[in-house]
Amino acid sequence: MTATTEITHHTKVLNGINQHWVSAGQGPPVYLLHGFPETWYGWRKQIPVLAEKYTVIAPDLRGYGDTEKPASGYDKRTMARDVLALMDHLGHERIALVGHDRGARVGTRFAKDHRERIDRFVAMDNIPTRVIADTYDVAMARQGYWFFTFLQVPDLPEALIAGKEETWLTHFYRGWSYDPEMLTPEEIAVYVRAYQQPGAVRGSCMDYRAAPEDVAQDREDEDQPIACPVLTIWGEDFSAVGQAYDVLDVWKGMARDVRGVPIPQCGHLCQEEKPEVVNAELLAFLDGWGG
């Protein structure tokens, strides 16, 4: 964060769970939904820039960070309702929504279930859940999706990761970045502390264990494209997204109005690895958003 950015932490029981979020700035509301293995902290390089023009809301998703980690409710329809409850609490009738990774899955469901409440949507380095289900095989697992299966095994991931959170997380931060040293040890330590909290590893596992329900929800309305404008941004050098799929073509199958921006020399954590590019694209896409 910059020294001039005032960021405020909040907690409130909404949609049946204690939600944590941060806020900054004033203006039309822009919601930022993080992915795995991150928290709201993954948006620290966007919040100061966006807060100059917008009210920025960055929650910890259900099961992550300082938000409650219940035993259920990780299907994306329920997680989208978490966002809706937060909007209602804050008095935001309509938002611009930016989602990275898991946050983009929540955002996709939100854009379909609550069409009147979203003005525009950014899906960052994400292939929709249904598309992954339709294309998943051993080759795709080797390409980078192995942990989708691993995390769905009941109880075992939690047992193996306990006490080794730093090793587990660092594997992804290093392996998913074009520059393996992109995150400093101090930045990684922030995430490690978050994932060492009681129930945190289980929370992220439960997010992935909801995949069968998520796919079923996505199949119900696969013939109903997202109506609002969509921007998809991805790192060209991430093996599981930019190097595995025609990302723009995939998203053209999801929405009526789509623009795509590949980022060269960039891995999965686009907003952290290439913040200047991401921030410029977000500001351009948000231009004209008046709340």
From TrEMBL:
GO terms for molecular function: hydrolase activity. The keyword Hydrolase applies. This is Alpha/beta hydrolase. Pfam families: Abhydrolase_1. Residues 28-275 form the AB hydrolase-1 domain. InterPro entries: AB_hydrolase_1, AB_hydrolase_fold, Epox_hydrolase-like. Keywords: Hydrolase. The keyword Phosphoprotein does not apply.
